[in-house]
Write a structure and sequence with these properties.
The complex is a heterodimer of chains A (294) and B (268).
Chain A: H1 13-20, H2 24-58, H3 63-75, H4 81-104, E1 113-114, E2 117-118, H5 133-166, H6 169-177, H7 182-212, H8 224-232, H9 248-278, H10 284-293
Antiparallel strand pairs in A: 1-2
Helix pairs in contact in A: 2-3, 2-5, 2-8, 3-5, 4-5, 5-7, 6-7, 7-9, 8-9
Chain B: H1 3-10, H2 29-66, H3 70-85, H4 88-105, H5 115-140, H6 144-152, H7 157-187, H8 205-216, H9 222-248
Helix pairs in contact in B: 1-2, 2-3, 2-5, 2-7, 2-8, 2-9, 3-5, 4-5, 5-7, 7-9, 8-9
Classes of the chains: A mainly alpha (294), B mainly alpha (268).
Chain lengths: 294, 268
């Protein structure tokens, strides 16, 4: 990275450290922080969409739709979510391959499950066997995102379902009195008002989502946990220019600090948003704001 | 091999008792039920022990956070922030590697590098922080009248805490604490995925469920079994905590009692 890094063996102290922390592998680790942020950026809106769909389904007048929505909300209670993560990654992968198998190889005779094997025709493999490395990595990442979205969608559905019920009855009755039908009441009256009730739950969920990101490691994505283990392990002089003993403790300490800072910043931003949203609302917090301003 | 033989061989496998080799081919449902159930012993062990010890530290931490003296308050606040603000998964990894380096200092720390002690310490501190925050919230919402009544009776210091503040705090915190206990049991599944080695394949329920899913490439059997076990465990926790809740609320009229409401669990 720096010009003085050509011969690491001669370096001392701070110079050595600055060269060590800018090796190619460390750059990959810094990119992995980007992976975490990317996961958050994609998962949060997707999970919110899943949650909104789940909560609306749970309120539906059509019984089967309502059952699906309620089951979706209920299913994440009482079961460790890490089990869901491990489960969905395999299950989704197999589901996609099975569907493609059905579409692409209709004249395949043997069963897909043979004993302990799951066999689909080569054309249905995901990603294709001859695909480049980055396709495999992206596919793995997309599976992880989808898994996160499904699990967190269920949490979000629960929050939004509660928020929809928290919208004052009088508001909905007024809408009916104006002659709105169910759909109009839902979109024009309930949905705009529910966010202030949902925000405490959703911001809690955001904190939890941040803290769930290291589980990417379990889903086989090369994330920061992977790199911390990889780079921190003891390095022998014969294999690397930068030998060092086992430093994994320090790498994980750095991750710990990263997450603590992230939490702190999120807390700060969310409290600002809450202040914005309560402004002018008919809630206790909104009333307190009005008094303070007056 | 009949199912009874399988149970005899594998029921205590997670403790290293019984058949040494895990099944490798021709997995039966019975084997999956038995081994995953055997792994539950670890989950229950971690959960129960961490909860029992964590309870006392949590009370101390909550009192510390509510204290006026900054020498008590600041450490308690930082303790809660560090353990609640970072992922448990990273805490496990960090603690494991700290314990590994402590091992070089003195052989006294040897047990900490194995899961039964090391992971337990992390879970204990973690639940103490989460519970401490719950108890702190409850301390803040103790009705003013209760403490004033204590003052009027001439209670102060330890008797005031023991007879008025502590029982009221517990009563107010109990529904949230029940949820915390459920989360704790669920987060015990992280232990063997986070550095702590499962020596001789003595793992917890998720470890075995994952083993079967990897071997059979079929996630649709082991994970639902695991889910079933955890739902049963959750129901047991709720009923035990419900009994305590009834006792804490026994002086109140029926309709003023706080009900335990189970909220969806959350990853830490």
């Amino acid at each position: 990275m720096f010009s003085f890094c050509t011969d690491p063996a001669t370096l001392e102290g701070f110079q050595w450290l600055s060269c060590y922390l800018t090796t190619g592998k460390h750059m990959s680790m810094y990119w992995a922080f980007g992976t975490v942020l990317l996961l958050l950026a994609i998962t949060a809106p997707t999970a919110l969409a899943f949650g909104f769909a789940g909560a609306s389904a749970a309120r539906s007048q059509v019984a089967p739709l309502r059952w699906i929505g309620k089951t979706y909300i209920a299913i994440v209670r009482g079961i460790p979510d890490i089990a869901f993560f491990l489960f969905f990654v395999i299950a989704l992968d197999q589901a996609f391959e099975y569907i493609r198998h059905r579409v692409k190889c209709p004249d395949w005779e043997e069963p897909v499950r043979q004993g302990n094997d799951f066999i689909v025709c080569t054309a249905a493999k995901l990603p294709l066997g001859n695909a480049p490395q980055w396709v495999h990595e992206t596919y793995g990442f997309m599976l992880a995102v989808l898994t996160f979205a499904i699990v967190f969608g269920a949490f979000a559905a629960n929050v939004l379902f509660g928020a929809m019920r928290a919208v004052p009855k009088g508001q909905l009755e007024t809408a009916e009195a104006y002659g709105m039908n169910r759909r109009q009441t839902f979109w024009r009256v309930m949905v705009p008002q529910m966010w202030v009730y949902a925000l405490p739950g959703l911001s809690n969920l955001w904190m939890v989502l941040i803290k769930a990101t290291p589980l990417l490691f379990l889903l086989g994505v090369e994330d920061i946990v992977y790199w911390a283990r990889e780079l921190g392990g003891a390095k022998q002089p014969q294999f690397t220019d930068y030998p060092h003993p086992d430093w994994r403790m320090w790498y994980f300490a750095a991750l710990l600090v990263f997450y603590l800072c992230f939490t702190k910043v999120s807390e700060f931003v969310l409290s600002k948003i809450m202040v914005k949203l309560t402004h002018g609302q008919a809630t206790a917090a909104g009333e307190a704001q009005r008094r303070a301003a007056a | 091999m009949s199912c009874w033989e399988t149970i005899a061989d594998y029921a205590l496998r997670s403790q290293g008792i019984g058949e040494r080799l895990l099944p490798r081919t021709d997995f039966t449902l019975c084997q999956q039920f038995t081994l995953i159930g055997s792994g539950m012993i670890w989950n229950i062990y971690f959960g129960v022990v961490a909860l029992c010890f964590g309870f006392f530290l949590a009370t101390a931490v909550a009192m510390g956070k509510a204290a006026r003296n900054p020498l008590l308050r600041k450490p308690a606040e930082w303790f809660i922030f560090i353990f609640r603000g970072s992922p448990l998964f990273i805490q496990f990894f960090f603690a494991y590697f700290v314990f590994l380096s402590l091992k070089d200092v003195s052989s006294f720390f040897n047990p900490l590098t194995s899961a039964w002690a090391g992971a337990l310490v992390v879970l204990f501190l973690n639940t103490a922080a989460y519970t401490g925050e719950i108890f702190y919230g409850a301390l803040q919402s103790i009705p003013k009248g209760d403490t004033e009544a204590a003052d009027a009776y001439g209670l102060s210091g330890w008797p005031r805490f023991r007879r008025v503040i502590w029982p009221t705090m517990l009563r107010l915190a109990w529904p949230a604490y029940t949820n915390e206990a459920i989360f704790l049991f669920q987060s015990t599944t992280l232990v063997f995925f986070s550095g702590f080695p499962a020596t001789q394949q003595r793992g917890d329920a998720l470890y075995y469920a994952n083993y079967f899913a990897d071997k059979t490439f079929n996630p649709f059997i082991p994970y639902p079994i695991l889910a079933g076990y955890f739902i049963i465990l959750t129901l047991i926790v709720i009923s035990i905590f419900g009994l305590v809740n009834n006792r804490l609320n026994r002086h109140l009229p029926q309709n003023a009692r706080q009900k335990i409401k189970v909220r969806p669990q959350i990853i830490r």
